[in-house]
Amino acid sequence: ALSSSPVAELSFPSQLAVIDGVLLSYLNELRRPATSIFVLDISGSMEGDRIASLRDALLILSGTKMDKQASSRYSRFQSRENVIMLTFDDQVYPEQHFYINEKDKGESQYQAISQFAQRLEVAGGTAIYSAMDAAYKIALKEQIAYPERMTSIVLLTDGENREGLSAAQ
Length: 169
Description:
Blueprint (H helix, E strand, L loop, with lengths): L15 H15 L3 E8 L7 H13 L10 H4 L5 E8 L7 E5 L6 H12 L9 H18 L4 E7 L13
Parallel strand pairs: 1-2, 1-4
Antiparallel strand pairs: 2-3
Helix pairs in contact: 2-4
């Protein structure tokens, strides 16, 4: 049965600045901090539009490039987020860490991620399983070191595994 007590109704904020403030406050201060591991395919098949799209995605996530979507301002990396970039072609390269801190609102790290994205060069074959194996090992270390953080792995690739480990291994 429904309550017969009066219900207090709160109106939805009518100003975009208020909505932005609430959402960004949640993302930057209240939600659990995250570790995001991006596994990036830089093999030869990513030449041209594919590597350009990968760069654009990273620039949008770093907030240094805006797209036409209104939600893009919420999809950028947030305060207290540990971002790990792991690139691969026919081999897996050492990971690079970017910590979005609260003191400078992440601006130095956003610029560092932007520079990282712009330097991506394509070459070689595609060792997806080897890269994912490395990413899982990094994720396990992160979860042990920072159990309070959410950890995710994002694979960005266009191809089939042609080098390194196979699904059977």
